[in-house]
Amino acid sequence: MKQKFPSSPRRMRALLGAAAVLVTVPLVLTGCSGSGSASSGGSKALAIEDYYDASYNPVYKQCAKDVGATVTINHVAGAGLISKVLQQASSKTLPDVLMLDNPDVQQIASSGALSDLSAYGLSASGDVPGVKAASTYKGKLYGVQSNTNSIALYYNKKLLSEAGVQPPKTWDELKAAAKKLTKGSTYGFAMSNINTYEGTWQFLPFFWSNGGDEKDIATPQAAQALQFVEDLQNDGSMSKSSINWAQADVNNQFLAGKAAMMINGPWQLPALNAKKGLEFDSVPIPTRTGDAPVAPLGGEAFTVPQTGDKAKMQLAGKFVGCLHSVKGQEALAKLSGNVPTNLEAGAKWAESHPQVASFVTTVKTARARTGELGPDWPKAATKIYTAVQLALTGKASPEAALEQAQSQNQ
H/E/C letters for each residue in 168-186? Predict the structure, then answer.
């Protein structure tokens, strides 16, 4: 079973309880824009497949109403989605609208299962550049992402204030702050260094911002980034248990007051806001030089599979266009905790939703994980988390760990 990146706030919850649940939503056809786009007498029923719970259903319903469609919504377990989609492509049973984690779009597009969205007048102009890149394969756009996310540095405002520490902007500042904030049962810093794609996801801002390259991870720049993380562990500022922590575990440490700062995403905001007495904020992840971080982009893309029914594909294109409109992006952002991918809409969203302001800033310079390697990205991701594990468990120096990991799965 293929492991998946934690791309979005809802995804983390959806994977916990997702089981193949079929929801049928009858809708009254309206005269709104796009109504009647299917051929005369043709079906206006669209089948949607995603790996969420029912949280997006209200937006699906509204967009279906706007384009004059009825929808059936199939929520599937995210971990098995790709194998299911490839099977559906083989058996010609693909849905009309398919949600994919953004690193998977190029893989599925390369199989021929997706249609070029320009056929429906859709584009990603005005969106975060990295988001557009993630859904582009051989120069064609195969998905549009209504929302995106990344990771930032959360901090406990009370603990930093008591220690006289300002939110760090550089590695040196982060190291000094983490050391000063480490006291009793509280570590100064926490992140996930688990041996899954989550561990890679959290290490990438340090790796990429310092010039690391997934095409060859065994470089001095990558070793410097890994040495920095190892130093945080070795000086006692980060728990040795981080090698076993998923992002949810890191958040639990922060909620319990056992970590003064942590790397995490906006999907943790509901739990953070629900914690009584917790005062927190976030800033972009510090870099060695203090420049803007290069972090990974998360979020899901909506695609129109090749079903062979041209009329329904056109209708599906209109439906996806509705989800990608500014109104649709804002509606989904409100439900998910993510940020709109349209740059102008994202900037306005940050003004009215200050808790995600650091993420809006971060995604401007963030990168698609598949940007360099396309469908081969998972191989590099495995090498990266393997190197992190080797170094943090003391089995190899950062340099040797990266060299050993780079040589595997060539």
Answer: CCEHHHHHHHHHHHCECCE
